[in-house]
């Protein structure tokens, strides 16, 4: 079924002259890509405040459903050999749910009583810039390694439906990453690709903050794709997004002592299309 969908999508796409985006006479070639699909939580736990409730979000806050998933990326292949790539990624991630907790929920210094309506938002959209160098000389293959910088943009909100209690936590900051990507042809038109970006940091500065908070992030995928003349690609992608942090921040919100424990593991299945 997925193969048929990819074939139909590619058949409906008009041919594009290679010279439009990646003439070998130009120092920079542009690649545009997008993915659309669905995302679900494998597991996700969150604790705000050292005395706060350690919540299993999918089960206890109503996020054990599938959410829309989209992803947009622009790659710039630099130089006549096209072995340097600068990539720009935008990944929206904003999960919302409404529940009535079966037990009191302690969030920092605020208690949300059981049996009363609660809106919960977990927003963690991010922007990322990466540089990769392709070690493979064959233009049909790719084995690239590099570095990335991600801007985390956390927005976590607990809000009672009656308006009596609201707890909001926002955080923005840079996160350094290691990056890798590979692509191998399969037959005349097919290919398989893998990519991974991530980092683990147990100390300040490396984790993108001024506190000794242990943090980690991982974003990886496996893709099965088809190509057609004109620089058009289509693919099916299975993606893992995970990470989190644990520790006490020096920039504590007013309602908490600064301690947070937040670990998430998400999976996404999507169809993508790219123009080279």
Describe this structure in words.
With 276 residues, this protein is mainly beta. 7% of the residues lie in helices and 63% in strands. The chain contains three helices and 14 strands. The strands form two sheets. The chain has a ten-stranded antiparallel barrel with strand order 1-3-4-8-9-10-11-12-13-14. The chain has a two-stranded antiparallel sheet with strand order 6-7. β3 (67-78) and β4 form a beta hairpin. The longest helix has 10 residues, at 2-11. The chain is elongated and about 60 Å long.
Outline the biggest β-sheet: 10 strands, antiparallel, barrel
CATH superfamily assignment?
Answer: OPCA outer membrane adhesin/invasin
- Portion in strands: over 45%
Structural class label: mainly beta
Number of helices: 3
The CATH class, by name, is Mainly Beta
Looking at CATH, which topology would you report?
A: Lipocalin
The number of domains is 1
Integer average pLDDT: 87
Radius of gyration from the alpha-carbon trace, in angstroms: 21 Å
CATH architecture: Beta Barrel
Number of strands: 14
Shape annotation: elongated
> Low-confidence stretches at least 5 residues in length (pLDDT < 50)?
1-6, 8-24
In N-to-C order, the SSE pattern is HHEEHEEEEEEEEEEEE
